[in-house]
Amino acid sequence: MKFFSCFFIFLLSFPSALFAHSAMDRFWGEVPVDMLISGDVLVVKTLTVPEGVTLTIDKGTVVRFEGSKDGINRIVVSGRLIAVGTSERPIMFIPKSPGSGPWYGIEFRGGTGRLEHCVFEGAAKGIRDPAGKAAVKDVSFK
Questions:
Q1: 63 contacts: CB under 8 Å, gap ≥ 6
Q2: Taken in order 126, 134, 36, 107, is the CA torsion positive or negative?
């Protein structure tokens, strides 16, 4: 019983220990539940949206990607991705910094999505959607 109490207190103190992403502005691994991200965030390793889960990216959000030697850092969507910006507040998908190295883009693997008013900079592939299940409107690539 003492172990359970200590473990429970640990989980309350450090909830990010259960999930693949941290409670701060850095994300990686599998998104465990429906989630909204906003502000200025950093994807440090591949972020996966599994089947049955929705990742929503708020308008005006800047999603930065840590570069990697092989350029595989990406968002993989098997669930649902909603990234709807506005012309005044687009969603930016950009490298962490100008010299941080390549990043892949967003890859749909059977998932669905809606991307509007988004800007992609420095992505090797941009958006890869072989099944054509993502609705893409007013998206630019630089």
A1: 37, 41, 43, 57, 75, 91, 92, 93, 94
A2: negative
Please report, as a single letter, which amino acid is at residue 84.
Answer: V
Each residue's pLDDT, cut to its tens digit, for the chain (142 residues) gives 444 344 434 444 444 444 444 434 888 889 999 999 999 999 999 999 999 999 999 999 999 999 876 778 899 999 999 999 999 999 999 999 877 777 899 999 999 999 999 999 989 889 999 999 999 999 999 8
The residue with tokens 């850092």 is 73
- What is the value of pTM for the model shown? 0.80
